[in-house]
């Protein structure tokens, strides 16, 4: 029988956008927790043909330290080769805003087992850590995530583009461009808030275009707008 070994030096890799970590495949790239649900599930599949993996899971508030208001079960378990198991995620009842989405992060650490015949060898093994966005979505919010993305406003102030979100949902960019120039530092904008994105020096044009990532993890349609000055 193969066993999990502690006799190795492990290297931790953070892979926030991947839907799998080596032999373990994670069922989605983002998690939407609708408030009316008692719990939601996240399927995990061990694609390894022979070895089990150890799975550890928890949520945080975004600082990678403070635990989020969710109970994840099982928090630590062994997933055998070619087997599937779902994590169950349940809100713990803590007070959260009712007029907008809240963002947390789901952490999944996967540790590969070591074959018995390799247990005495000096080997470098990898620990994979995947972080998924977890959106807490209250009931009865006005509009949709698609509407929020479509209705973003853009204004230029000096050397920045100010992105304004008047909606109740997060907008996470799949891409943002000023003319033909990508703005790679654009990540996301929270509900009822704004962010400043640096403009490249002497970038020509007045058109801004963008796509957002949908609930299903793919890109929305492309939207365009004229950048308002000042």
TrEMBL record:
PANTHER family: CHAPERONE PROTEIN FIMC-RELATED, PILUS ASSEMBLY CHAPERONE
Listed InterPro entries: Ig-like_fold, PapD-like_sf, Periplasmic_pilus_chap, Pili_assmbl_chap_C_dom_sf, Pili_assmbl_chaperone_bac, Pili_assmbl_chaperone_C, Pili_assmbl_chaperone_CS, Pili_assmbl_chaperone_N
GO terms, biological process: cell wall organization
Chaperone in keyword set: yes
Subcellular location: Periplasm
Highest taxon in the source lineage: Bacteria
Gene3D superfamilies: Immunoglobulins
Sequence similarity: Belongs to the periplasmic pilus chaperone family.
PROSITE patterns documented for this protein: PILI_CHAPERONE (PS00635)
UniProt cross-references to SUPFAM superfamilies, sorted A to Z: PapD-like, Periplasmic chaperone C-domain
Keywords annotated in UniProt: Chaperone, Fimbrium biogenesis, Periplasm, Signal
Pili assembly chaperone C-terminal domain: residues covered: 164-220
The keyword Secreted is assigned to this record: no
Native species: Enterobacter soli
Chief location category: periplasm
Recorded GO CC terms: outer membrane-bounded periplasmic space
Annotated signal peptide: 1-21
Full protein name: Molecular chaperone
Taxon lineage: Bacteria, Pseudomonadati, Pseudomonadota, Gammaproteobacteria, Enterobacterales
Any Pfam family the entry gives: PapD_N
UniProt domain Pili assembly chaperone N-terminal: residue ranges: 23-141
């Amino acid at each position: 029988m193969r066993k999990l070994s502690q006799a190795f030096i492990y290297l931790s890799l953070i892979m926030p956008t991947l839907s799998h970590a080596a032999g373990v495949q994670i069922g989605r790239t983002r998690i939407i927790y609708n408030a009316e649900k008692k719990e939601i599930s996240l399927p995990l599949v061990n694609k390894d043909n022979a070895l089990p993996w150890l799975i550890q899971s928890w949520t945080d508030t975004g600082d990678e330290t403070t635990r989020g208001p969710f109970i994840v079960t099982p928090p630590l378990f062994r997933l055998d080769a070619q087997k599937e198991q779902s994590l169950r995620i349940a809100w713990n009842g803590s007070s959260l805003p009712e007029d907008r989405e809240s963002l947390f992060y789901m952490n999944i650490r996967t540790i590969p087992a070591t074959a018995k015949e390799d247990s005495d060898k000096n080997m470098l093994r990898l620990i994979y850590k995947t972080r998924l966005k977890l959106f807490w979505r209250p009931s009865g919010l006005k509009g949709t995530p698609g509407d929020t993305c479509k209705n973003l406003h853009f204004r230029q102030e000096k050397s920045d583009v100010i992105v304004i979100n008047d909606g109740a949902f997060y907008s996470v960019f799949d891409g943002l461009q000023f003319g033909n120039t990508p703005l790679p530092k654009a990540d996301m904008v929270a509900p009822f808030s704004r962010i400043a994105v640096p403009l490249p020096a002497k970038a020509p044009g007045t058109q801004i275009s963008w796509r957002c990532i949908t609930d299903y993890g793919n890109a929305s349609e492309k939207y365009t707008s004229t950048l308002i000055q000042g």
